[in-house]
Structures are given as structure tokens and as C-alpha cells.
Amino acid sequence: MNQQKSPKKKNNFKNAAMLSGIAFEMGAIIFLAVKGGKWLDAHYQNEKNIFTVIATLLGVAISIWVVLQQLKRIKY
After folding, report:
1. Is the pLDDT reported for residue 5 higher than 90?
2. 75 and 12 in contact (C-beta within 8 Å)?
3. Phi, psi (rounded to 5 degrees) for 40
4. pTM
5. Residues 6+ apart with CB under 8 A from 32
6. Torsional class of 49: left (φ above 0), alpha (ψ -120 to 50), beta (otherwise)
7. Distances (CA, A) of 23 to 1, 17, 50
8. Of 61, 63, 55, 76, nearest in space to 21 by CA
9. Are 41 and 57 in contact (CB under 8 A)?
10. Do 59 and 29 contact (CB within 8 A), yes or no?
11. What is the Cβ-side half-sphere exposure of residue 48, based on CA atoms within 13 angstroms?
12. CB of 51 closer than 8 Å to CB of 37
């Protein structure tokens, strides 16, 4: 008899791949936001690094939003 792979195993592998990529995606978004904030502070010669703080918080918020959107797409 021909045994077929269960669709549940395939979904589990796909979900694991998506979840492992989330950390890299969050890191990249936050890293780029910080670099952008530092660049703005250097460009406008801001000594208090306000652009870095704002960009970092914005990057964290965007990365959380992206993660939540991806978690909605995961099928159990």
C-alpha cells in the first residue's frame, strides 16, 4: 500500500520555517531603524539622539506588527 505524507507534517515544517524567520526579520527591521535614526542625528547634528530613539521605537512597533500579521497566516 502506498503511504502518503500527512498534510499536518508539511504544515508543521512550513510553520517552523516561518517562525524561525521571524527573529531575523525583527532584527533586520530594528537594525535598519536604528541605523536610520543615527544617520538622521548625524545629518542634522542633533546631540540628544532624539531621532535614534524615535526610529528605534518605531522600528520595534513595526516589527511587532509584522510578526502579528505573520502569526495570523500560520495554519495549525
Report:
1. no
2. no
3. -65, -40
4. 0.79
5. 59
6. left
7. 42, 11, 26
8. 63
9. no
10. yes
11. 2
12. yes
> What is the pLDDT at residue 76?
67
What's the start-to-end Cα distance of the chain, in Å?
28
> Cell numbers of 67, please?
510578526
User: Measured between alpha carbons, how far is residue 40 from residues 7, 13, 48, 61, 76 in Å?
Assistant: 49, 41, 12, 19, 43
Q: How many CB atoms lie within 10 A of CB 59?
A: 21
To which residue does cell 515544517 refer?
A: 13
For residue 50, give the 3-state DSSP assignment: helix
pLDDT tens-digit profile of 15-63? 888 888 898 999 999 999 999 999 999 999 999 999 999 999 999 999 9
What local confidence, expressed as pLDDT, does residue 6 receive?
Answer: 57
- Please work out, in degrees rounded to the nearest 5, the angle formed at the alpha carbon of residue 13 by the alpha carbons of 9 and 19: 140
